[in-house]
Amino acid sequence: MAAKVVTITSGKGGVGKTTTTANLAVALAASGDKVVCIDGDIGLRNLDVILGLENRIVYDLVDVVEGRCRLRQAMIRDKRLPELYLIPAAQTRDKTAVSPSDMVRLCDELRNECDFILIDSPAGIERGFRNAVAPADVVVVVTNPEVSAVRDADRIIGLVEAEEKGPARLIINRLKPDMVKRGDMLSVEDVLDLLAIDLIGIVPEDENVLMGGNRGAPVAFDGKGNAGQAFRNIARRLKGEQVPFLDVSAQNGILNRIGRFFRSGGG
After folding, report:
1. What b/e sequence results for 188-199 when a residue is b if at least 16 CB atoms lie within 10 Å of its CB, and e otherwise?
2. What is the separation of C-alpha 256 from the centre of its chain, rounded to a whole number of angstroms?
3. Could you tell me the pTM of the whole model?
4. Cβ distance 87 to 38 under 8 Å?
5. Vertex 28, ends 219 and 52: CA angle to 5°?
6. How far is 234 from 237, CA to CA, in rounded Å?
7. Which residue ranges in the chain fall short of pLDDT 50?
8. Each residue of 171-207: pLDDT tens digit?
């Protein structure tokens, strides 16, 4: 069966999109799926660092597109998970070096060789976003439960639908139940009411996510802690399994205080 292409995107930086991509890749590969990650953030690559593969880069995505190497030569195999591969982004070029048709062609070449292709989209809505969503079968939008991040996500969802790649699916990242209880953070229900797309995962705030990314060992490697388990659950949902969501007991959000943000250009 041909691989499923999943593009992970977000609004502006700071929501943990690339960390999410890395953890989903690890979770899928750990369950036996062959996974190829493509870092679409040309000029600002970070996925290689979070996966702990930065010292093994020889060729990158632009090298493949411009014919300086074969696709196989640019694929870095993770020694810990033999079914996990990375095609890194170029650091010395910009996003115009790759076109949407280039990404479609590259993914078509990979589809019969793996189970999942995960594309880490650049944050925002410029050329890199269009490149990343062009070959997508599924687009996953990552947001923090914060007003500005959710408004960005609302804009991204509209663009995904305009590209006829919807409906997008949603991951709510870095949820802090104590803040929700105090009314200082949006609840899951608030975010879903505002964005009106299907939820595929809730990842609680967990310092191990940051530490794992800094060490090049994403928390999904061992699945310990709530965040590691959350990423593994999301990976299972991407495969079509029915998996209960983590228990998030805090229900009291601040929805009634944020309507003006969406009326003033939320997309």
Report:
1. bebbeebbebee
2. 29
3. 0.90
4. yes
5. 45
6. 5
7. 250-267
8. 999 999 999 999 999 999 999 999 999 999 999 999 9
Q: Kindly give, in sequence order, each residue whose CB lies less than 8 Å from that of residue 267, ignoring residues fewer than 6 positions away.
A: 151, 154, 155, 156, 157, 158, 159
CA-based nearest residue to 40, from 105, 116, 131: 131
Domains of the chain (ranges, CATH numbers):
4-263 (3.40.50.300)
How would you label 59-79 residue by residue, b for 16+ Cβ within 10 Å and e otherwise? bbbbbbbeeeeebeebbbebe
CA distance 81 to 47: 16
Closest CA to 79 of 29, 18, 39: 29
Rounded distance between C-alpha atoms, residue 144 and residue 174, angstroms: 6
Looking at residue 91, its pLDDT comes to 86
Provide the pLDDT for residue 263: 41
Please provide the size of the chain in residues. 267
Q: Phi/psi at 78 (nearest 5 deg)?
A: -75, 125
Q: What are phi and psi of 116, to 5 degrees?
A: -135, 140
Structure tokens at 13: 């930086």
> What is residue 2's DSSP assignment?
P
Q: Which residue has the tokens 């989903």?
A: 24
Q: Provide the CA 49 distance to its chain's centre, in angstroms.
A: 15
Q: What confidence tens digit (pLDDT) does each residue in 29-42 have? A: 999 999 999 999 98
Q: What pLDDT is attached to residue 248?
A: 59
